[in-house]
Specification:
This protein is mainly beta. It is 10% helix and 51% strand.
Length: 219
């Protein structure tokens, strides 16, 4: 009888107890938004960025986020999902163009078309990625370096370089323009991707990352 009474009292307490829903972890804040959406809602400057948020911009839109000591800038007609990862922050670029400014202590990874680009070293990193198609994208590294990884193969993309990455290239794809990268161990070759140099970057001309992250006229 006593056990039945205790069970009844416990049941009554559980029914009356408030339900606490787990909230996603906050990652950062929106510091500039124009023509940008989170899901189906409009994004405003000052909004909190949560783990798992997916942002998109209109063709003429712009979005700038601060995630810890890193900043993410989304160009027009772009889509990105932000995730908290074991090594830091992961930005999954699903379309368009994204620029990243990461302090030396910031660990940022950009996932694009199944490949990964991670900040490396102890320097400020300024980089930009633009999707060209399901298997192609541009990557520009103005400062610092990025480690490019795909299907178990990897390279370090050095400072001051701009590449077109082609994933799973068809057999016989010309490689004469393949950029000079650090030598690989004997017997190893790039079979899953090719990196083609576009231009040796001369920073006398303006570039989007400079405009986004360094211009004093920007908010």
């Amino acid at each position: 009888m006593n056990r039945a009474l205790v069970a009844l009292l416990l049941s009554a307490m559980l029914v009356g107890a408030p339900v606490v829903w787990a909230q996603p972890a906050a990652m950062g804040v929106v510091i500039l938004a124009a023509g940008a959406q989170l899901g189906s809602g409009r994004v405003s400057t000052g909004a909190t960025v949560f783990d798992g948020d997916q942002f998109q911009t209109n063709v003429d839109g712009v979005l700038r986020l601060r995630i810890g000591t890193a900043q993410v800038h989304l160009g027009g007609g772009s889509v990105v999902t932000l995730r908290r990862a074991e090594y830091g922050t992961q930005a999954i670029l699903l379309g368009g163009t994204m620029s990243v400014s990461a302090a030396p202590a910031a660990a940022v990874s950009i996932a694009v078309n199944g490949a990964a680009l991670r900040t490396v070293g102890d320097r400020l990193t300024l980089a930009q990625v633009s999707i060209l198609g399901p298997k192609e994208f541009y990557v520009v590294v103005r400062r610092g370096a990025l480690e490019f990884s795909y299907n178990g193969e990897s390279e370090v993309i050095p400072e001051g370089s701009m590449y077109r990455a082609v994933l799973d290239p068809p057999h016989g794809l010309p490689s004469a323009d393949q950029a000079p990268l650090p030598a690989r161990p004997a017997g190893r070759s790039r079979t899953r991707y090719k990196l083609y140099i576009l231009i040796p970057i001369a920073w006398a001309t303006e570039w989007a990352v400079h405009e986004v992250f360094e211009s004093p006229n920007r908010p």
